[in-house]
Design a protein that fits this description.
Elements lengths: L2 E5 L3 E2 L5 E8 L7 E7 L6 E6 L6 E3 L7 E6 L4 E6 L8 E8 L4 H5 L11 E5 L2
Parallel strand pairs: 2-10
Antiparallel strand pairs: 1-3, 3-8, 4-5, 4-9, 5-6, 7-8, 9-10
Amino acid sequence: QLQFVESGGALVQPGGSLKLSCVGSGFILDHYTVGWFRKAPGKESEGVACLSSSDRRTYYEDSVKGRFTISRDDAKNTAYLEMNSLKPEDTAVYYCVVTKISSVQAMCAIKFEEYWGQGTQVTVSS
């Protein structure tokens, strides 16, 4: 059974930084493409960053390009999302997801309705 534990979310001021972590269990991360998705109140879920396993290709949603960096440590079965220059519109619950989809763009385009983990809350406000 796939399980995820996301952490690292917090309340930060605009312009601040956070690093999210996602520890997976019940699977081998090295076999999957990993992605970070977010869900804000009143908005549909969106993929913000995805990272493939084999060739380490990345995809970023336009609004986070240049500010967010996705990474992975397969030995630790852990994925990360480093977020800089945070904006109020980044406020959301962030979740990590794994799939066998090799295309990072296709994976990040999926509109998930449910997630495996509980997510971690990121609030950007002054």
